[in-house]
Design brief:
The strands form two sheets. The chain has a four-stranded parallel beta sheet, sandwiched between helices. Strands 3-4 form a two-stranded antiparallel ribbon. The chain is built from ten helices and six strands. It has one domain (40-227): Rossmann fold, CATH 3.40.50. Helix 5 (90-104) packs across helix 8. By secondary structure, the chain is an alpha/beta fold. Bound molecules: zinc ion (ZN). Zinc ion (ZN) binds at residues 17, 19-20, 22, 31-32, 34-35. Residues 17, 19-20, 22, 31-32, 34-35 line the site of zinc ion.
């Protein structure tokens, strides 16, 4: 009965791969196996002092940085980010987070984090969009690492950076005060895994890390879905 129902449902709502658009097999979810196989994974979680970590050297002390796959404009995998960010497909975010978590578990550094924290959206943006894409990823990661997810303690205090402020985030200048920590005791002595969707200049991550590192003896690592 269940099968008849899902067969009927798939006529009206066919499940297609978020990357190539092909129909998904019954055992596939969101992305087909072929696309998953071709995903340009970075595997940088297995490499200490990697190129992403070097982006932060001399700026903010971040313990480890990893990204799930390399992102290039115009690549078919750009669609994954589009589904995640704009189409409100929450399932895909959690699923990608789970894939990330499975990879991160292979690294002793990442397996040892204490808490998983998404890069927060400002509450007004959260209201209009309805969800935070980084939170979906963080949820999937936390489930696979079997660590708690904290979406309250780190928050975004400044909503819409003016043109100048936006420039600041891109240029790595004074980013103080954009992100804040509610109770500094919450993250004292904790290794925090900060989760983002796309790592580009790293300025947003640096601003979050700077806020988190105000907690006594805190350590910050980063997991991003994609690295540009
Ligand atoms: Zn596909």
């Amino acid at each position: 009965m269940q099968n008849i129902f899902s067969a009927l449902l798939s006529i009206f709502y066919p499940n297609t791969c978020a990357t190539c658009g092909d129909l998904l097999e019954k055992h596939e979810k969101c992305i087909c196996l072929k696309c998953l196989y071709h995903l340009p994974k970075t595997n940088l979680h297995l490499q200490k002092d990697n190129e992403l970590e070097q982006r932060f050297w001399g700026k903010v002390p971040i313990f480890r940085v990893a990204a799930f796959f390399y992102f290039e404009k115009g690549s078919p995998f750009q669609k994954l980010l589009h589904h995640l960010k704009y189409k409100g497909e929450k399932e895909i975010g959690i699923m990608l987070g789970e894939y990330m978590g499975v990879d991160l578990r292979q690294s002793a550094d990442f397996a040892a984090v204490d808490v998983v924290v998404p890069v927060p959206l400002h509450r007004n943006k959260m209201k209009t969009r309805g969800y935070n894409q980084s939170e979906l990823l963080a949820k999937g990661i936390a489930a696979k690492l079997q660590k708690p997810l904290d979406t309250d303690t780190l928050f975004r205090a400044i909503e819409n950076p003016t043109q100048t402020k936006k420039g600041v985030l891109e240029r790595w200048e004074n980013v103080e005060g954009i992100f804040c920590v509610k109770n500094k005791e919450t993250f004292a002595d904790k290794h925090i895994l900060l989760v983002d969707d796309v790592l580009t200049t790293g300025a947003t991550i640096a601003a979050c890390a700077a806020a988190l590192l105000q907690c006594e003896n805190a350590k910050v690592s980063v997991a991003s879905l994609a690295a540009a």
